[in-house]
Specification:
The complex is a heterodimer. Chain A is mainly alpha-helical. Chain A contains seven helices and seven strands, in the order E-E-H-E-E-H-E-E-H-E-H-H-H-H. Classes of the chains: A mainly alpha, B alpha/beta. Chains A and B meet through strand 2, helix 1, strand 4, helix 3 and strand 7 of A and strand 1, helix 1, strand 5, strand 7 and helix 5 of B. Strand 2 (17-20) of chain A pairs parallel with strand 7 of chain B. Chain B: This is Ribosome production factor 2 homolog.
């Protein structure tokens, strides 16, 4: 409510704003405290004036307290953004307007004549699903070598592509008029140079992993202690993989498995077997194992062995 | 080659819709930042302004060297920040020898600078220096009263602009319904001279008076400072006209669950929630609550009273 008379204030209840245009502050500076006091008393009067109107508004009682309906603010302040601009009509809308086509609301459930049931229009087990057609009858206009099912899929792809193109055109014209919908952005993608192919695809995850693995093996410890980024997979097993010999030897070929076992046996039972097998060490290992099994205690609780003392070797293999 | 990009998550979509231009706009957010050098007073001013406007303000803590609001090229950073944070008001503080304790308050229209006003800060008293009863301390985000006193606000064009900018700054959201118990703060601006405005922030104490309207008492709680007008820039006429444009019609609110029919008339639909028979509260069958018991007790009480009063009468 604005009252432009000499003695009253300009009050805007919608903004909880009050303005007293008539007060004159003395040009002679009184002490700071007095000035502050004067300002606060004047302010109190203004707030009281707003409260007078505010508390006399019709209020509804709620759990938190009395709720009043504020009138819209009367002081005009500039907007922060422009007013939403009207969208230009799309190509279909123009056509529909010209032809007088009305929008009709489609039902979610449609009667399917082939199965005599009511099916949904979109989604699982829908009416007129392209994948469900068992037989397409040949027409006189069909070419002999053409696959009608593939033709249907092709037609659909073309239709969808055309629709996407139309949608893009509609959005472009809306963007030109400044009325692009808020959640859509039109982005310019890179053009391939005329005469050349489109840009190659970015390097894939696996290729990157392989290259990283290659680089890791060039380090002194073969990449075993390299710091891994979060999400990086551990390196694939490097080196030779186990070669499994065939169980049944091929006709005319040497039985490799037999050869392998014979080799090992021969070495063990040969004259110089003591040179190959470190009997003392073998006995120690066997005894250790036996003791561990018996006691069932872990090695950690046992008294630590003195590692400076060297074990006596029976024979050093030449 | 153009490509249509839509947000892949609902959250992103909601954020974009919130920031889109609308008929009825959201409350303006404030961006608080500072330049290469700030003094102690200025940094506390910015900090307290941020605290007062918590919930509707964003404070940047790094210094910005390339922001010069009054120069033609120096506003690009500001406009970029405004775009990124969706803030339409900014408060830029800087301290130089020529302009000590300088605060530039500016507004944006469509993320371009709309108008600017530069004030110097004198006699600043921080909100920590005021002592008051903590019970009346204003709550965060409450809608404030804004009061202007002094003929300067009407006669001097710079003060007029400052009045508008301060209203925009302190206003917060425009609301339809207001809870009267939540009114606890007021900003008092007094034009003590044609170039100086005294600004203070007070808490409101509602005291009982005879009528519905309580008696108002103001207690200074918040920061208080003197604003000395320095430079300003008014918006150019065309931009101002465009920004002040408002659409008169409100979008019609769709009334749900009501349909009109020529045959049946106006019909409404009521949805009743599923009655969970297993979870219905059974009647309280404890003895003391039974109706017969209660009524019997009441009768007894009345009888006793009656007899007591009779006795009393007899005794008299």
């Amino acid at each position: 409510m604005d009252m432009e008379t000499d003695q009253t204030y300009q009050i805007d209840v919608g903004n909880l704003l009050a303005f007293n245009p008539n007060h004159r502050f003395s040009s002679a500076p009184s002490s700071r405290e007095e000035l502050v006091k004067e300002c606060v008393t004047e302010g109190t009067k203004l707030v009281q004036a707003i409260a007078d109107t505010l508390f006399n508004l019709p209020s509804t009682e709620t759990n938190d307290g009395p709720l009043v309906q504020l009138p819209p603010p009367s002081t005009k302040l500039p907007r922060e953004k422009h007013l939403p601009r009207p969208k230009p009509p799309t190509k279909w809308e123009e056509f529909a307007l010209k032809k007088g086509i009305q929008k009709r609301k489609k039902d979610k459930i449609v009667y399917d004549e082939t199965t005599d049931k009511f099916k949904r229009r979109h989604g699982y087990d829908r009416v007129n699903d392209d994948n469900d057609i068992p037989i397409i009858e040949a027409k006189a206009s069909d070419e002999p070598g053409e696959d009608p099912f593939a033709k249907r899929l092709d037609d659909k792809k073309k239709r969808v592509g055309k629709q996407e193109k139309n949608r893009l055109e509609n959005l472009k014209s809306a963007a030109k008029a400044g009325a692009l919908p808020s959640h859509v952005q039109l982005a310019v993608t890179g053009l391939p140079i005329s005469g050349t192919k489109a840009q190659p695809k970015k390097i894939g995850k696996e290729a990157l992993g392989d290259v990283a693995g290659l680089a890791a093996t060039s380090t002194a410890s073969g990449g075993k202690f390299d710091k891994k980024l979060p999400g990086e997979k551990p390196p694939k097993k490097q080196g030779k993989h186990h070669k499994y010999l065939p169980v049944v030897p091929r006709y005319g070929w040497v039985d490799e498995e037999k050869e392998q076992t014979n080799k090992v046996l021969g070495k063990l039972l040969s004259k110089h077997s003591h040179e190959i097998l470190n009997v003392g060490k073998a006995i120690n290992m066997y005894n250790d194992k036996k003791e561990k099994k018996k006691s069932g205690r872990s090695d950690k609780l046992k008294a630590k062995k003195d590692i400076t003392k060297k074990k006596p070797y029976a024979n050093k293999a030449n | 080659m153009m490509e249509i990009r839509t947000p892949k998550t609902h959250k992103a979509k909601r954020v974009l819709e919130k920031r889109a231009p609308k008929l009825v706009e959201n409350g303006k957010k404030t961006l608080i930042l500072h330049g290469t050098k700030t003094s102690a007073t200025l940094s506390s001013v910015l900090m307290e302004l941020y605290r007062l406007k918590k919930g509707g303000a964003i404070k940047y803590s790094r210094r910005n060297e390339n922001i010069r609001p009054f120069e033609s090229g120096g506003e690009t950073s500001l406009e970029f920040f405004s775009q990124k944070t969706d803030c339409s008001i900014f408060a830029y503080g800087s301290h130089t020898k020529k302009r000590p304790d300088n605060l530039v308050l500016g507004r944006m229209y469509d993320h371009h600078v709309y108008d600017l006003i530069e004030v110097g800060i004198d006699n600043f008293k921080s909100l920590l220096s005021f002592s008051y009863d903590k019970k009346i301390a204003p709550h965060e985000g409450s809608k404030p009263f804004i009061c202007f006193t002094g003929e300067g606000f009407e006669n001097v064009p710079e003060l007029k602009q400052l009045k508008e900018v301060l209203t925009d700054l302190f206003r917060g959201e425009v609301v339809d319904n207001l809870n009267l118990t939540g009114l606890d703060r007021a900003y008092i601006c007094s034009a003590i001279s044609p170039t100086k405005v005294f600004l203070t922030h007070c808490a409101i104490k509602l005291k009982k008076s005879g009528t519905i309207v309580p008696r108002i008492e103001l207690v200074e709680v918040g920061p208080s400072m003197d604003l000395v007008i320095r430079r300003n820039r008014l918006p150019n006429e065309g931009l101002r006209k465009e920004a002040m444009k408002s659409s008169k019609d409100k979008p019609k609110k769709k009334v749900k669950n009501v349909d009109q029919d020529d045959v049946l008339g106006k019909r409404g639909r009521i949805f009743i929630p599923e009655q969970e028979v297993g979870k219905t509260p059974l009647p309280d069958k404890s003895k003391g609550v039974k109706r017969e018991r209660r009524e019997g007790k009441l009768k007894k009480k009345n009888k006793e009273e009656g007899s007591a009063s009779k006795k009393h009468k007899e005794s008299e």
